[in-house]
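About this split. The held-out portion is used to measure sequence recovery: a designer receives only the structure tokens and must propose an amino acid at every position. Recovery is the fraction of positions where the proposal matches the reference. Here is one held-out target exactly as it appears in the evaluation file.
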């Protein structure tokens, strides 16, 4: 096995790694230039406090009778 430090192959390894770094930098620059960033609107949530039914009665929920599907009466 040959020693790469005596044959001058270290320069080839350094050039290879430097070229990889240059390619990564070019891809980063290209992605930042050609990437269109959309402006996102800030969401505002309501800060109103909703009234909670404290009487213990459950609100009456109307059943939708126009549904195409009929649920089973009993649970298995």
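Reference sequence for scoring:
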């Amino acid at each position: 096995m040959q020693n790469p430090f005596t044959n001058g192959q270290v320069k080839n390894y350094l050039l290879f790694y430097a070229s990889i770094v240059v390619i990564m930098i070019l891809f980063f620059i290209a992605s930042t230039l050609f990437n269109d960033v959309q402006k996102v609107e800030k969401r505002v949530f309501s800060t109103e406090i909703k009234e909670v039914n404290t009487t213990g009665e459950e609100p009456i929920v109307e059943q939708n009778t126009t549904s195409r599907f009929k649920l089973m009466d009993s649970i298995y």
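Annotator remark: The helical segments are 4-7, 10-34.
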